[in-house]
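A student in our group prepared the protein record below, which I am reviewing. I have pasted the whole thing underneath without changing anything:
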Amino acid sequence: MRLGADVCLLYRRSRAELPARHEEVENAEEEGLVCKFLGAPVEFYGDESGWVKGMKCIAMELTEPMQKAGAV
Protein backbone atom coordinates (compact mmCIF):
# COMPACT_ATOMS: atom_id res chain seq x y z
CA MET A 1 0.00 0.00 0.00
CA ARG A 2 2.84 2.37 0.82
CA LEU A 3 4.30 1.57 -2.59
CA GLY A 4 1.12 2.60 -4.39
CA ALA A 5 -0.95 -0.59 -4.54
CA ASP A 6 -4.69 -0.63 -3.84
CA VAL A 7 -5.05 -2.94 -0.85
CA CYS A 8 -8.05 -4.44 0.91
CA LEU A 9 -7.85 -6.75 3.92
CA LEU A 10 -10.41 -9.55 3.64
CA TYR A 11 -10.90 -11.68 6.75
CA ARG A 12 -13.34 -14.57 7.14
CA ARG A 13 -14.11 -13.76 10.75
CA SER A 14 -15.15 -10.59 12.58
CA ARG A 15 -12.88 -7.73 13.63
CA ALA A 16 -12.87 -9.14 17.19
CA GLU A 17 -11.24 -12.39 15.99
CA LEU A 18 -8.59 -10.67 13.86
CA PRO A 19 -5.16 -11.83 15.11
CA ALA A 20 -3.68 -8.33 15.28
CA ARG A 21 -3.48 -5.61 17.87
CA HIS A 22 -6.31 -3.08 17.68
CA GLU A 23 -3.78 -0.28 17.28
CA GLU A 24 -2.20 -1.96 14.24
CA VAL A 25 -5.52 -2.24 12.43
CA GLU A 26 -6.54 1.28 13.41
CA ASN A 27 -3.23 2.73 12.17
CA ALA A 28 -3.48 0.84 8.88
CA GLU A 29 -7.04 2.10 8.35
CA GLU A 30 -5.86 5.66 9.03
CA GLU A 31 -3.32 5.16 6.23
CA GLY A 32 -6.11 4.09 3.88
CA LEU A 33 -6.40 0.32 4.30
CA VAL A 34 -9.92 -0.95 3.61
CA CYS A 35 -10.94 -3.83 5.90
CA LYS A 36 -13.72 -6.23 4.96
CA PHE A 37 -14.79 -8.77 7.56
CA LEU A 38 -16.90 -11.94 7.35
CA GLY A 39 -16.07 -12.62 3.72
CA ALA A 40 -14.33 -15.32 1.73
CA PRO A 41 -12.95 -15.30 -1.82
CA VAL A 42 -14.55 -17.66 -4.33
CA GLU A 43 -13.03 -16.41 -7.60
CA PHE A 44 -10.01 -14.35 -8.64
CA TYR A 45 -9.74 -12.15 -11.73
CA GLY A 46 -6.44 -11.43 -13.43
CA ASP A 47 -5.06 -9.48 -16.35
CA GLU A 48 -3.24 -10.74 -19.45
CA SER A 49 0.05 -10.69 -17.51
CA GLY A 50 -1.27 -12.96 -14.77
CA TRP A 51 -1.58 -10.27 -12.08
CA VAL A 52 -4.61 -10.52 -9.80
CA LYS A 53 -6.79 -7.47 -10.36
CA GLY A 54 -9.88 -8.40 -8.36
CA MET A 55 -11.85 -11.14 -6.69
CA LYS A 56 -15.40 -12.27 -6.11
CA CYS A 57 -16.32 -12.87 -2.48
CA ILE A 58 -19.19 -14.35 -0.51
CA ALA A 59 -20.54 -13.09 2.79
CA MET A 60 -20.06 -15.29 5.83
CA GLU A 61 -21.44 -15.30 9.36
CA LEU A 62 -20.10 -16.45 12.68
CA THR A 63 -21.61 -19.59 14.17
CA GLU A 64 -21.00 -21.67 17.26
CA PRO A 65 -17.78 -23.75 17.14
CA MET A 66 -18.29 -27.34 16.01
CA GLN A 67 -17.90 -30.11 18.57
CA LYS A 68 -15.32 -32.82 17.89
CA ALA A 69 -16.85 -36.09 16.75
CA GLY A 70 -17.24 -38.50 19.64
CA ALA A 71 -16.67 -35.84 22.29
CA VAL A 72 -18.80 -36.08 25.41
Remarks:
- The chain has a mean pLDDT of 89.
- The CA atoms of residues 22 and 28 lie 10 Å apart.
- Strands lie at 8-11, 34-37, 39-46, 52-59.
